[in-house]
Amino acid sequence: MSSIRCIPAARLQVGMYLYKIGGSWLQHPFLRNSFLLTDEDDVRRILDAGIESVWIDESKGAPLPDGNPAGEPNDTSFSGAAVELPDAAVDADPLPGRRAVPVAAGTVALAAELERARNICLIGKQQIQEMFGELRLGNTVCQQTVVPLVEEIAASVWRNPVALLSVARLKSHDDYSYLHSVAVSALMLALARQLGLDEEQTRLAGIGGLMHDLGKAFMPLEVLNKPGKLTDEEFAIMKTHSAAGAQALREGGAEPGVVDIALSHHERMDGRGYPHALKEPEISLLARMGAVCDVYDAVTSIRPYKRPWDPAVAMREMARWDGHFDKRVFNAFVKSVGIYPLGALVRLASGHLAVVVEPGADSLLKPKVRVFYSLRSREKILVRTLDLADPGCTDSIVGPENPEQWGFANLEALWL
């Protein structure tokens, strides 16, 4: 049985080992998350910060006395998925008997959410690094320890789904293995919402997305961090990471749905995936979701051996991969992220190039864009923001453009 327990902060005592702090990690009063409580002032500071629950490690400090009294939070509680959401309608395609909640219906402006999203990414990077380190030392990792982080990710996605996905996309080579997990968790949560999944499945999707690549901790560093394309032999080694991660999660007591995402997110509907070459009927919904989210973040991220795809180009190319993804899940994913996601370079009917700066509230085809380049004069122009959904707007998107073909650099400055 795991020695990690979630308890009410009010039951903290000196002598307990604080493993993780629950609630919001963005405003707790400590520079570190794990330490032995030796001072009553530290307990008081936790309570004064409004923190309602914490995780303690009973193998490193005093245990909780008197068992588990009524009212103690469950180890798998997930308040993030229970946030009240807007009831706006959208042209969605949820699973039978379920209602999609439109991801574009965030309640907080993008600019207001970006700083919070940056902090979540920093915290997420730190926690994934810690889990990689624990696994490399031969220790187990506990699913429950990531719940506070997944709650933060979920809450950010509910407030404004674009902010966190955009920040997480701007990862460096050194950050990739860690921030990729944060991004996939956010994408899984947004997709679960679009598919109309219930709170339990949404919780598993978010946790599984965050932990789906833990098996990479067991890969040789010279293969994992290779700056060029892998050889066939190296790729064969890397393909073992899904089974290795699933086994590590089982040993840590993770739920079957979380284990399955780690094990099967590289399976394909046509049976040409790995590790077990499963075919359509054998692949779970959560694993099908994981396949789409994992690939999208991978191809739109900076990698040591290739330039990232523009988000809109990625959508177009992934749609052409016949037999790779579940079509219904992929279509829902497009609706959750947008046909023209934030940061996408697009050509306008007016003869200008623009970058998408905000998804359309009512139409996937009419986002807000920032116009910056004239195709007629072949030069940059005074930047202006245009809402294609405005009734008075006469411009429209003709299609996506590849930034590499135009030689544009640092387009992020236009939208972030």
Automatic annotation (TrEMBL):
One protein family per Pfam: HD_5
SUPFAM superfamilies recorded: HD-domain/PDEase-like (SSF109604)
InterPro entries tied to this protein: DUF3391, HD/PDEase_dom, HD_GYP_dom, HDIG_dom
GO molecular function: phosphoric diester hydrolase activity
UniProt-listed CDD domains: HDc
Location of the region described as Disordered in the Swiss-Prot/TrEMBL record: 58-78
Lineage: superkingdom: Bacteria
Signal peptide interval: none
Entry-linked SMART domains: HDc
Domain called HD-GYP: residue spans: 155-349
Protein name: HD-GYP domain-containing protein
Upper lineage: Bacteria, Pseudomonadati, Pseudomonadota, Gammaproteobacteria, Lysobacterales
